[in-house]
Structures are given as structure tokens and as C-alpha cells.
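User: I'm designing a mutation panel for Qnr family pentapeptide repeat protein and want to avoid disrupting the core. Could you give me a predicted structure to guide residue selection? Please restate the sequence first so the numbering is unambiguous.

Assistant: Good idea. Sequence first, for numbering, then the predicted C-alpha cells:
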Amino acid sequence: MIKNQVFSEQRFNQKQFSGEEIHDCKFLRCCFDSIDLSETTFVNCIFYDDEMQKGCSFQNAQLKDASFKHCDLTMADFKNIQALGLEIRECKATGADFNGANFMNMITTRSWFCSAFMTKNNFSYANFSKVILEKCELWENRWTGANVRGTNFSGSDLSGGEFTEFDWNDVNITHCDLTNSDLGELNLRKVDLDGVKIDDWQQSHLLEKLGVIVIHSK
């Protein structure tokens, strides 16, 4: 186990942390690009230099079954990571960039499954553009202002989420669980809601936006 260390402007070796448990460490402007972090666990770690306003880079890293819990991943660069089974829980990931991240296990060219466990995080203004996250655990996240253009969340649990300043128009949420979520400006006329689960109070709110007055029977 690695604990209570500070790393500054370091570029790490291929398997330096692979499979390790890392607790209460600071990584300031560090580079994890292309290294193997499979099954590595980070707990209460900081990956953001608040003074320089710069995050760490994980571009092209192997993050299969890796875990981040209670970490500060603000502005982290996760572009093109291999992320099947990645766990991110109760983290601050404001402005993190997941463009090109791969959460899929390809079975054939036409069949695959995804695996990700990302819950109770702040993903405000993060970039998930064109990422495929089908049938994943994505509950109780804050998605304020996140870039989800072309993102596929089909079948995922998005319950308890906060979707203010969220563009619903070019994201696949079919068969998702949206119960107990703040749905922001979701427009029933423009979004495919096939198979989506919502609560009674959400239904009333969405219909009222269409001018329909919902009367609750006693």
C-alpha cells in the first residue's frame, strides 16, 4: 500500500502502480499516459493542482477494473483510456475529459457489453461526447453542463441525477432509469424516451411543459 505521498510533475513507468492500493496521495500535474493501471485502487487522492488549475493526464492508459473513490479528478484527461469495469465513486471530476474512452468489451464486430460503475460524482462540464456507456451504473451523478453530444447511455441507471444545463437533444437515453432525477429542460417532443423509467412527479412536470394540466385524483 502507498500512503500519504506527494508526486509533482512526474511521468510514471508502465507498471509502477498496477494493482496497487494508493491512499491519501497527491499527484500534481503528473502524467499517467499509456501506463497500466489495471486493478489499481486510489482512495482519497488528489489529482488536481488547485494553484496552477491543472489536472493530471491519463491519455491512452489501461484502466481496466481500476477504482477511484473520494478523489479529486478535476480537469483530468482521460482521453482514449481503456476503461472496462472502471469504478469512480463520490469523486469530484469537474471538467474531466472522457472523449474516446472505451468502456466496452467487444464480443464480435456487432456485439459487445459495457461495464462502468460511476456513482455520486460531480461530472459538471465533463466531456463524454460520443462515449458508449450502455447498461452501466451511473446513478446520483451531477451532469450540469456536461458535453454528451452523441453519447449512448441506453439501458443505464441514471437515477437520482442532476441534469441542469444538460443537452438532451443528441444523447441516447432509451431504456434508462431516470427516477428521482432533476431532468432540467428535457422536452418530451424532442427526446426519444422509449423504455425510460420516471416517477409520477416527473411525469407531471414534463407534461406541464407541454401545456397539459395534470390533476391528481384523491
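For picking mutation sites, this is relevant: The first strand starts at residue 2 and ends at 3. The chain has a mean pLDDT of 92.
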